């Protein structure tokens, strides 16, 4: 069995299509989507419709902070994100907005916790950026394995009994065995707006027997996605981020 884990699609149709196609070529049997389907990119409605279709076929889909902000203007964002969200709200219909509003903040599947931001307070949207936050999240939850997004940069954190958390960045395409003697927190990176100086879309592949995680990078039409952002009148910095992966 294998699961494709995707997060932070951010209205980027080209990146999402490329990752879905790659996962299906690999024979993935299930999709788990960890939120932030909208914001920043030029195709929010299309992305939401694809997520709805995946859920109808058995996928897990969670809510991210940008998804929550569609119906909650009190969620604070930086000026660029706020401008993109104002534009996005005008491009979603009632059903799409209701779908995003109804998504859960987290999900548990056996010994796995899925969440957009962190395990200690999913709705506060705090980031896991260091081993300190990773350990806080792992110690808060009973599940041995946590999978999250939010930071847009792939990272693996691990913790053994009586030892502090460690971290390392997974190499693209190289499977990492997830030893059951440790707790693990995996930050997936971003499908639609990577920020680790690699513009290729990023998602995670989880395989079983033995359990292992692979960070997958998928090149896509960044120039086309950036051109759509410019044509929509969204901030230029959002187009540049796609081209530079930052």
Q: What features would you highlight for this structure?
A:
Purple Acid Phosphatase, chain A, domain 2; 246 residues; 6-stranded mixed β-sheet; 32% helix; single chain; alpha/beta; 8 helices
Structure characterization notes:
The protein has 246 residues and is α/β, with parallel strands linked by helices. The chain has one domain: Metallo-dependent phosphatases (Purple Acid Phosphatase, chain A, domain 2, 4-Layer Sandwich). The chain contains eight helices and twelve strands. A six-stranded mixed β-sheet has the order 3-2-1-11-12-9. A six-stranded mixed β-sheet has the order 4-5-6-10-7-8, covered by helices on one side. Strand 1 (2-6), helix 1 and strand 2 form a beta-alpha-beta unit. 46% of the residues are buried. The mean pLDDT is 97.
Distance between the termini: 33 Å
Report the CATH C-level class. Answer: Alpha Beta
Radius of gyration: 17 Å
Shape: globular
Structural class: alpha/beta
CATH homologous superfamily placement: Metallo-dependent phosphatases
Pick out the low-confidence regions. Answer: none
> In percent terms, what proportion of residues is strand?
15-25%
By DSSP (H or I, 4+ residues per run), the number of helices equals: 8
CATH topology: Purple Acid Phosphatase, chain A, domain 2
Order of SSEs: EHEHEHHHEEHEEEEEEEHH
Structural domain tally: 1
- Overall mean confidence score, pLDDT: 97
- The assembly state of the depicted protein chains is single chain
Strand order of the largest sheet: 3-2-1-11-12-9
Reported for the largest beta sheet, the result is: 6 strands, mixed
CATH architecture: 4-Layer Sandwich
Query: How many DSSP E strands?
Result: 12
